[in-house]
Amino acid sequence: MAAVSELFADDIAYHVPGNNALTGDYAGKDEVFAAFGKLLEITGGTFKNDIHDILANAEHGVVLVVNSAERADGRAWTGRSAHIWHLKDGMATEFLRLNEDQATADAFFT
């Protein structure tokens, strides 16, 4: 997490869509890392981002990702998403995730 923290602006805006336990707009590193902690708690540390491709320039990046995770009750989830990043001076200032199937993500993370 220390390496990730060095890439995030102190006032990063982090947006998670949907209607589930992770949904929300997080402001600043502390809130974002708290959300990461909740993600790890829900998935027992099984959450993965497998990068399919990255498209970027100096100000924006889009990462095409296949996400997967498992829950303690045996449920498993795999879903594709696009991670949209706004960048300034080499730092991530804003993040937005777009899930291909939001309803399936919501069902898993609820």
Blueprint (SSEs and pairs):
Blueprint: H1 2-7, E1 8-16, E2 24-27, H2 28-43, E3 48-56, E4 60-70, E5 76-88, E6 91-99, H3 102-109
Parallel strand pairs: 1-6
Antiparallel strand pairs: 1-2, 3-4, 4-5, 5-6
What can you see in these coordinates?
The protein is of the alpha+beta class. The protein has helices spanning 2-7, 28-43, 102-109; strands spanning 8-16, 24-27, 48-56, 60-70, 76-88, 91-99. Strand 5 (76-88) and strand 6 form a beta hairpin. The radius of gyration is 14 Å and the shape is globular. The mean pLDDT is 96.
Can you describe this structure in just a few lines?
The chain is α+β, with helices and mostly antiparallel strands and 110 residues long. It is 27% helix and 50% strand.
